[in-house]
Amino acid sequence: MAKSISDDFELKQDTTRIPFNELNDSLPKINYNELLIDKLKIKPTNLIEWKQRHYLTNYFNNNKKIKIFITFGNWYDSKDSLRLTYKPDGTLVYCDIPCIWEKRNLGELYPVELRTADAIFNSLRLIVRLATYDIYSSFDENSDISTSYVRTDPEIWRATPPFNITTLSTNSTLISFIASHITEFRKSFIPLLQAHMNVASFGNVYQNTPWDLYPECLNLWKFDTKNCVVSKYPFYLAIESCQEKDYSTEKLWDIFKLGVVPVIWSAPNVRSYLTHHKSVIFIDDFPNVEALANYLRYLVKNETAYLEYHKWRTMKFSDEFEKKSYMSMRNMECNICKEVARLRILEGRI
Fold it and tell me: What does pTM read for this prediction?
């Protein structure tokens, strides 16, 4: 019987077979832990990479506690910590890594107790104990831990109904504005807009409307009072203090949970990380202030057009916004603990 090519191949395979134990010894050894730890050295650029870093950090941290002492500054104060909840062992409830986030007065700490902390957090800068570097956390995407000003779960924003423009009268004020300090742009823009339409200003800048106009909004926490007042108007004038890359504060993000359309002057790259490209109105898109005022008046007379700015509530969030939400104030404490744990892993202290 003639042999086929496949028979000959099988024969050659049989005659050259190598015992498994010898084959195994001849292969180079691969240390998969080292490969995975090397991935922790690479700065993430998108949401998936950030989640991968945090997953690996949690794995190699092996449930070891991270202790951070915090001192409050102007940027992060005692009210920010009111939203935090703790487990019986003192770690944060919502964090998937054992994170102790504890307010302490550094002047009252003994050196022995101070050395039990892995890091000290003060305002925007995190100083890591026994390290030769700092961890910098800010709104800047280039910082070690970028932290946006998103303070609440954006999924909750979807449930807020849009402002009901059918309740407005002919003389209704359409837009509100709240700012604590004046800037060059605010100084020049607000009077120009007021020349074409009423602006209900409640803050220190061009205040013309008393807070007690809405008694139900008084005696609340400062952001709740502000948000209550803002929700009374179909538009909110969200003018940041500057146009700096990545800089979008609660002036923008808080408005999405109020059913109001933000009219914004914000970061030059803000379009890249909005919930949706048609979720805000850009001041810079109009040739002049009068054109903007006319457009706002058009929207409140055309419910279909106004609701176009609320369609994002039923749509998938943009990928860049998802990253902003994940790397945000609402997750900041946990994200910082994960960063400290990552550095401990890279130093071999786990």
Answer: 0.84
